Amino acid sequence: MAKRIPPLASIKQTTTTTPPPAHQSRAAAIRETIESVAIAFVLAFLFRTFEAEAFVIPTGSMAPTLMGRHKDLECPQCHYNFQVSASEEVDRDGNEKKGQPKIDYCICPMCRYVWDGEEGPIAQSAYHGDRILVNKFAYQVGDPERWDVIVFKFPQNSQENYIKRLIGLPSETVKVHRGDIWIKGEDAREFEIARKPPEKLRVMLQPVFDDELMPTIEKIGWPARWRAELPPDGSAAGQWTSDDRAVFETDGSAAGEAWLRYEHLVPTESQWADLERKLPADASVVKPQLISDFTAYNSGGSGGDRMEIRNDFTGKHWVGDLAVQCQAEVENGRGQIVLELVKGGRKFQCRIDAGSGLAEFSIDGLEKSQFDHRTPTVVKGPGKYELKFANCDRRLYLWINGGIVLMADYPDLRNDIPDRSDLQPAGIASRGVKLKAGHIKLFRDIYYVAANAETHNRQLKVNDPGHFYNITMCDYKIWPPGIKSGDYADFFADPRQWQAFEDNNMEQVFFSTKDDQFFAMGDNSAKSADGRTWGVVPRKLLIGKAFFVYWPHSWHRIPGTKIPFPFFPNFTRMGFVR
After folding, report:
1. HSE-CB for 414 with a 13 A CA cutoff
2. CA 418, CA 17: separation in Å to the nearest integer?
3. Most confident range, picked from 33-37, 539-543, 551-555
4. Residue 277: exposure state from Cβ atoms within 10 A (0-12, 13-18, ≥19)
5. How far is CA 42 from the centre of its chain?
6. What is the pTM of this model?
7. Rounded Cα gap, residues 434 and 332, in angstroms
8. Long-range contacts: 10-19, Cβ < 8 Å, 24+?
C-alpha cells in the first residue's frame, strides 16, 4: 500500500521537533534589529541625499513668504495679527544671545500704532522659523525657473545654506529699477520686465489694509479708509451705505456708477498720541498718502529714539503695483461690477457683467483696438463671488473664487511718477447691480530696492550743499526735500514734492550672469542680504527647490483665544512654497 505523502506545510511543521537554543534566538533577533536600523539609516541617507531634506528658516530675508525667527503679535489697538523679526536675538542655532537687547517695540501694519513693550509680551523669547522640505532631485531632472524659491550653498561660505528667490537665469543681465525686475537675454537688444506667474504673485503680494479691522479703528477715532464717493449733484440715491464700516451695500439705483474709494490714511506718531488722549482726529491734518514699501516684519526695535526709527521703517518708496480683493454678493442679475486701480495717474479697470458673467479689462487712454481683453466667468446672477484684481509688472490679473481667469500685458504707459489721483489708488463700483461688498483687502507688490555693494550703505546727498544723510537701501540719488529727519508722512502726502520720483533721481543697478550662474534675491528686499551685495550662485552650489512648509511657526496658543498651548502650529501656513 502506497504511503501518503503529507503536504509541504505539514512537513515543515513536523520536521522541526526541537526549538533552537534561547541564545541563538536572541542573537538572530538582535541581528535582525541591527539590520533593520542600518537599512533605515541607509534609506534615510539616500532620501536626504537625493530626494528631500528638511531645513529651518533662520532669518527674515524671505518674509512674509517664509518666516525666519520672529515674534507673533496681536496689535493691542486694532487686534491685527502680524509678525516681527527677532533673528538678531538668537544665534544660528536658535540660542539666545547673551546681552542682546530684546525687541521692545514695533509698528502695526494696519493702524500704524507703535506698540511699546510695556503694553504686551514683545520681549518674550523668539519663535523658531518655518520648517520646510527641499526637493533635491528637482534640478537634476530639470532646469531652475525664474521665481523659484531655491536653497543653495552660500558662495562665500560653503558651510552655510541660503534660501532666496531665483531672479536671474544663466547668461542674462538683470536690472533693478523702480521696484521691478528687468531682464535682457544674451542676444536681446532691450530689457523686458519680468512678470510673475499668477500663482507666484498671489503669495508674494503684501497686505496694505484689511477693511474688516475698520470698525475697531474707527472706534479709536480714526477716519475710514474706504468711503462712498458722492456724485457731483450730491444725490445719495443708490450710493454705498454701511452700518459697520466692514460691509458696504448699494441697491443699484444710482444714475451712473456708485463708487467706493480707498484713501491711504495712516496716522503719524503725534496723531496717535492725540488718539491715546481720546482726542478726535483733526480732519484738516489727516491727509491721504501714497502707498509705500512699509513692511511690518522689519519694524521691530529696541531702545533708541522711537520716532526716528519708526520714520525710517515706514517705507521709503512709492509702490504703485497693487491688488484689490473683495467678496461681492450679487442680489440681482443685471448691471456691472467695477474694480479699479490707479498707477501714475492711469486708471486700470476690470468690469464684470453681473448677468452674462463677461469680464473685460480697460486702461484709461487706450481704445479697445489697442487693448481688448475679455473672458466669460462664473459671475452670473445672484451669488457670492470672491474677486481679486491686480495691476503688477505691467500686467493685469483677475482671480475669481481663487482661480485665475484673465491676464493681459500692456506696454509702457509712461506712468512711473504718481500724481494726485494716486491718493485714491483703488475703487469698487456698482453700475445697476444690487450688491454687497465685504472682506475688502488691499495688497501691494514687492518693491525690489535698487541697491548693490556700493549703494547698500552710503551717504545720500541732500539739496543743501555740503549736507548728507546716512542711508541704507534707498533708491533716491538725492534726498527728497520734503523728507525732514526721516519723516516720510508729509512727503508722501504732498504732490508738490513728487519730482523726487523722476528718472534722474531714481537708482537702477545691473547684474550679469554667465553660463551655469544664477542671480537670487530675497522677498524682503529692504532687509535681505542677497545677490545684490555678494553676486551670483554657480549651479554646482544649488541644493534644490523649496517646495513645502511642513511645520510653520507656532501660535503657542489656541487660535482665537489667549489660552496658552505650547507649539500649537499655524496650520494655515502649511502648504507648498510658491
Report:
1. 2
2. 94
3. 539-543
4. exposed
5. 39
6. 0.87
7. 6
8. none
- Measured between its terminal Cα atoms, the distance across the chain in Å is 80
pLDDT tens digits for range 410-464: 999 999 999 999 999 999 999 999 999 999 999 999 999 999 888 776 666 666 5
pLDDT band at 102 (very low <50, low <70, confident <90, very high): confident
Helices (H) and strands (E) in the chain, counts: 9, 32
In whole angstroms, give the CA distance from residue 199 to residue 410.
Answer: 20
Q: What's the number of CA atoms in the CB half-sphere (13 Å) around residue 1?
A: 1
Angle between helices 306-313 and 269-276 in degrees, nearest 10: 120
C-alpha 289/C-alpha 425 separation (Å) is 10
- The CATH topology of domain 131-203+508-550 is Umud Fragment, subunit A (2.10.109)
Domains of the chain, by residue range, sit at 131-203+508-550, 457-505
Contact between 102 and 302 (Cβ < 8 Å): yes
Q: Rounded mean pLDDT of 208-222?
A: 92
- The Cα–Cα gap between 409 and 390 comes to 12
Kindly report the backbone phi and psi dihedral angles of residue 460, in degrees, each rounded to the nearest multiple of 5, phi listed first.
-105, 125
Contact 39, 519 (CB under 8 A): no
- Which has more pLDDT, 547 or 391? 391
Measured CA to CA, the distance from residue 54 to residue 407 in angstroms comes to 35
Helix (H, G, I), strand (E, B) or coil at 319: coil
- Answer yes or no: are the C-beta atoms of 154 and 58 closer than 8 Å: no
Amino acid making up residue 318: W
CA count, 13 A, side-chain hemisphere, 310 = 20
Q: Give the rounded distance of the alpha carbon of 510 from its chain centre.
A: 24
pLDDT, position 37: 52
